[in-house]
């Protein structure tokens, strides 16, 4: 009885926010990174910075001699709440009628991006009339993309956010992209948007993108639920392939099921799981 009570209490906590799970977010503000570096590390994850041809994006640091000139600007970044001193920006290089750089995870580790702050201007730090495009990929395949043509912060009077524009991946695109696993983030611009600087990159490790990454079904019923030894699925009229995922989004069981057939779950640890039928949505169940 005590075990069941604790389990139900945990379920209430985990799903009390409209079914959303609190993610292990990290925010990289670059303050501990080395000036001029094309790599950075946050929460144990290493990232690489790649520039488009003829440009040079890396970590800005006041006083650092970079690409033939000295970086000179104190308090020019934005950590999400206040100015700071280090960020990624374009240090020299050609003006290519637009600009661009890519951030990748070392080892192709999967992450989810929540938000970032981006300073967008002409090379002379004036208002631009260009277009910003952000594209995310996993294993070279595009997972989502969105563009922004307006709503940028004022880079002349540095307001709001010290001139940095807040890019929210939950609302900026066609849908909420924060739960989509990626390993590459490509930021490009057109027109006279020739200079960009990035700060306060908010991200989460891929193995924490769990509950929200499933499109849950309200039509498929699992019983008994909770269960300690087996489950059955309603409304199955033919043989279906299925996969069971744990709360971290890792597949732990797969197979085929027919009408009135039971799925043995005795070897699963107690906790929350999701079962997904082929070409269908996932359904949540609890292993006692």
Describe what this molecule looks like in 3D:
The protein is mainly β. Strands 1, 4, 7, 9, 12 and 14 form a 6-stranded antiparallel β-sheet that branches. It folds into 2 domains: about 1-15 and about 210-285, Immunoglobulin-like (Sandwich), CATH 2.60.40; about 25-210, Jelly Rolls, CATH 2.60.120. The chain has one helix at about 1-15; strands at about 25-30, 40, 45-50, 55-60, 65, 70, 85-95, 100-105, 110-120, 130-140, 140-150, 165-170, 185-190, 195-205, 220-225, 230-235, 240-245, 250-255, 265, 270-275, 280-285. The protein is elongated and about 70 Å long. A hairpin with a 2-residue loop joins strand 2 (about 40) and strand 3 (about 45-50).
**Beta-sheet strand percentage?**
35-45%
How many domain regions? 2
Tell me about the largest β-sheet. 6 strands, antiparallel
Distance between the termini: 11 Å
Q: Provide the CATH top-level class of the largest domain.
A: Mainly Beta
Give a topology summary.
Elements: H1 2-14, E1 26-28, E2 39-42, E3 45-51, E4 55-61, E5 65-66, E6 69-70, E7 86-93, E8 98-105, E9 111-121, E10 132-138, E11 141-148, E12 164-168, E13 184-190, E14 195-205, E15 222-223, E16 230-233, E17 240-246, E18 251-257, E19 263-264, E20 271-277, E21 282-287
């Amino acid at each position: 009885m005590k075990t069941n009570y604790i389990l139900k209490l945990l379920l209430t906590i985990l799903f009390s926010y409209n079914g959303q799970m609190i993610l292990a977010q990290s925010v990289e503000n670059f303050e501990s990174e080395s000036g001029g570096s094309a790599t950075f590390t946050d929460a144990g994850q290493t990232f690489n910075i790649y520039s488009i041809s003829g440009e040079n994006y890396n970590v800005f640091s006041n006083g650092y001699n970079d690409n033939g000139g000295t970086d000179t600007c104190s308090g020019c970044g934005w950590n999400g709440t206040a100015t700071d001193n280090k960020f990624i920006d374009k240090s020299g290089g050609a003006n290519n009628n637009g600009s661009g750089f890519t951030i990748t995870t070392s080892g192709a580790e999967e992450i989810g991006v929540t938000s970032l702050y981006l300073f967008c201007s002409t090379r002379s730090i004036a208002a631009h009339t260009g277009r910003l495009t952000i594209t995310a990929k996993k294993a070279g395949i595009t997972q989502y993309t969105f563009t922004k043509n307006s709503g940028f912060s004022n880079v002349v009077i540095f307001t709001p956010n010290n001139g940095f524009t807040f890019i929210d991946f939950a609302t900026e695109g066609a849908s909420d992209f924060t739960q989509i696993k990626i390993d590459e983030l490509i930021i490009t611009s057109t027109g006279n948007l020739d200079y960009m600087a990035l700060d306060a990159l908010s991200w989460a490790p891929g193995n924490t993108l769990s509950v929200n990454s499933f499109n849950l079904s309200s039509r498929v019923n699992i019983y008994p639920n909770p269960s300690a030894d087996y489950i059955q699925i309603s409304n199955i009229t033919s043989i279906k392939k299925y996969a069971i995922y744990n709360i971290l989004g890792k597949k732990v069981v797969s197979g085929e099921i027919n009408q009135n057939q039971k799925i043995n779950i005795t070897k699963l640890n107690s906790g929350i799981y999701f079962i997904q039928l082929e070409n269908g949505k996932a359904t949540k169940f609890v292993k006692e």
